Amino acid sequence: MRVRVDGELCTGHARCVILAEHVFELDDEGYCSSRGDEIRIPEGHEESARTAVENCPERAMSITED
Ligand code: F3S
Questions:
Q1: For the chain, does the N or the C end have fewer beta carbons within 10 angstroms?
Q2: How does pLDDT run across 1-35, given as a tens digit for each residue?
Q3: How many CB atoms lie within 10 A of CB 22?
């Protein structure tokens, strides 16, 4: 499972960091550090990552299943 974070849509709500603290973190500017990237979700963290994706207010995150 991979998650893409749209670089234009992420405005730094940080819900992803709160809901999936072992997957996402904020960068120095207060945005998701995966902004503009697609990251592979570590095994065992799929559920929290999915919750984070569903709760991003900007709908900045999207899932690709492997
Ligand atoms: Fe950005 Fe959404 Fe997270 S706006 S910081 S991807 S909750």
A1: C
A2: 999 999 999 999 999 999 999 999 999 999 999 99
A3: 11
Q: Which residue has the tokens 């670089």?
A: 7
Amino acid letter, 2: R
Secondary structure (DSSP) of 6-45: -TTT-----HHHHH-TTT--B-TTSSBTTBT-EEEPPTT-
Element (H, E) at 66: none
Spatial neighbors of 55 by CB under 8 A, at least 6 apart, are: 15, 16, 19
Out of 58, 59, 63, give the residue to mutate to test ligand 1, the one with the largest number of ligand atoms within 8 Å of its CB. 58
Residue with the smallest CA separation from ligand 1 atom 4 is: 10
